[in-house]
Write a structure and sequence with these properties.
CATH architecture of one domain: 2-Layer Sandwich
Shape: globular
Largest sheet: 8 strands, mixed
Number of helices: 10
Helix content: 25-40%
Number of strands: 12
C-alpha cells in the first residue's frame, strides 16, 4: 500500500510574475498532501479526502472530463487524464488524500494535490517522467480541469522543493537555482488572515487576460512575447503605448516585481536581509496599488507588521484577496509580532489571525 507526499509552498517574493514568464522565489513547506493508494478489482477510481465531504467514483478506463460544481476531484483527475494517454491503468484504485495545508490560505493546497497524484501514478505506472515534467502535468491539470490559467510556480516548487533552500525559478525557461535560506536568528512567519483566499478562477483569469492585453498593446511599438521581456527602463519608455490606465498598472506591477525578485535574491546571497525585507514591503505595495489583489485583511496584516521592531519585511503571498502574509521576523520579536498583529487585526477586521513558523521541506516523494 504505497503512500506519497507533496508539499505546499510559500512564495517569498515574485507574485503574479510566473504566468508572465518572470522570476519567482518560493520554497516548499514541510506540510502538504499525503496520498494513500490501494488497487481494487472493480476497475473504479474512488477518490476520498479527509478534508472534503464528497466521495467520487469514476470508471478507471475513462474517458475523463472535468466534473461540475468546482469539484475538488478535478485537481487529481486532470493529472490522471494526461498520464493514462500514455498507458492504460492496470486496475482500479482507491485514493485517500489527507492534507494539512490550510485550505484557502494561499499556500498551494491544490498544487500539492496535483503533484502528489502525478508523482504517484508516474511511479506506479513506471512512466519515467522527471520532476519538471510532472510539474507541467500538474499545471495543465489546473488549466484544463480546474479552469485556472495559473503559472508554473506552485506545481514546480511542490515537485522540486529542497529543505533549507528556496528556488529562484525562471518561469519562461524553467531554469532554476537552489538558494540557501541563511536566516540566522530570523524566522519565516506565515500569518493566516482566515479571510478565505477568494482569488477565484474568474478574477485570476482576468488578471492573466489584462497582462496579455498589455503585451498586445506594447507590441504595436515593440514586439514582445511576455511582459518579462521588458526591463523597467524599457517599460518606462514604452508605457505610453498602453491606453487603459488599469492595464498600465497591471503591467507596471509585473515588470517591477520581476526586477524586485532579482534584487531580492542577490540581497539574500549577500546576506543582506534588510534589503530583502524592504523589497518584500515594496512588493506588497505594488500588489495593493497596481495589481489590486490584496484587500483589507491582507493590507491590515502587512501594514501592522511594518510598524513592529524586529520585523524585517512583510507581504501578502499567493494569489491574493485573502490567504496569508509572509514575514521575516527576528526570533526575539516573534512573541511581540504575534500579540500585536493579532490584537490590531481582530480590532480592525473582527477576524482572528493564525500564525505558523514556516519550515522548509522536500519536494514530492514516496514515504511508505
Amino acid at each position: 500500500m504505497p503512500v506519497y507526499f507533496a508539499p505546499g509552498r510559500v512564495n517569498l517574493i515574485g507574485e503574479h510574475t510566473d504566468y508572465n514568464g518572470g522570476f519567482v522565489f518560493p520554497c516548499a513547506l514541510d506540510f502538504g498532501t499525503r496520498l494513500t493508494i490501494v488497487p481494487n478489482s472493480e476497475r473504479i477510481l474512488r477518490f476520498r479526502s479527509t478534508n472534503m465531504p464528497q466521495t467520487v467514483e469514476l470508471p478507471a478506463m475513462g474517458p475523463f472530463s472535468p466534473l461540475p460544481d468546482h469539484c475538488w476531484v478535478n485537481y487529481p483527475l486532470g493529472c490522471i487524464a494526461q498520464l493514462v494517454e500514455q498507458v492504460e491503468l492496470p486496475s482500479g484504485y482507491d485514493l485517500m488524500y489527507e492534507g494539512n495545508v490550510p485550505l484557502g490560505a494561499g499556500l498551494s493546497s491544490s498544487a500539492s494535490i496535483e503533484v502528489v497524484t502525478a508523482y504517484a501514478f508516474n511511479d506506479i505506472l513506471n512512466l519515467g517522467l522527471d520532476r519538471t515534467q510532472l510539474a507541467l502535468v500538474a499545471q495543465k491539470a489546473e488549466h484544463t480541469f480546474a479552469g485556472v490559467h495559473c503559472g508554473i510556480m506552485d506545481q514546480f516548487v511542490s515537485a522540486q522543493g529542497k529543505p533549507d533552500n528556496a528556488i529562484f525559478l525562471n518561469c519562461d525557461t524553467l531554469q532554476f537555482d537552489y538558494v540557501p535560506l541563511r536566516l540566522e536568528n530570523v524566522s519565516i512567519v506565515l500569518t493566516n488572515s482566515h479571510s478565505p483566499h477568494k482569488l477565484d478562477a474568474g478574477t485570476y483569469n482576468q488578471r492573466v487576460s489584462e497582462c496579455q492585453e498589455a503585451v498586445r498593446q506594447i507590441s504595436r511599438c515593440k514586439p514582445i512575447g511576455r511582459l518579462a521581456d521588458l526591463t523597467p527602463s524599457e517599460f518606462q519608455s514604452l508605457q505610453s503605448a498602453i491606453t487603459d490606465p488599469v492595464i498600465l498598472r497591471r503591467a507596471r506591477h509585473v515588470v517591477t516585481e520581476i526586477q524586485r525578485t532579482r534584487e531580492a535574491v542577490n540581497a539574500l546571497k549577500s546576506n543582506d536581509l534588510t534589503t530583502f525585507g524592504q523589497l518584500m514591503n515594496q512588493s506588497h505595495i505594488s500588489l495593493r496599488d497596481d495589481y489590486e489583489v490584496t484587500g483589507r485583511e491582507l493590507d491590515t496584516l502587512a501594514q501592522t507588521a511594518w510598524q513592529i521592531d524586529g520585523v524585517i519585511g512583510s507581504r501578502m503571498t499567493g494569489g491574493g484577496f485573502g490567504g496569508c502574509t509572509v514575514s521575516l521576523v527576528k526570533n526575539e520579536a516573534i512573541d511581540t509580532f504575534r500579540q500585536t498583529v493579532s490584537e490590531v487585526y481582530q480590532r480592525e477586521t473582527g477576524l482572528q489571525a493564525e500564525f505558523y513558523i514556516a519550515r522548509t521541506g522536500d519536494g514530492a516523494r514516496r514515504i511508505e
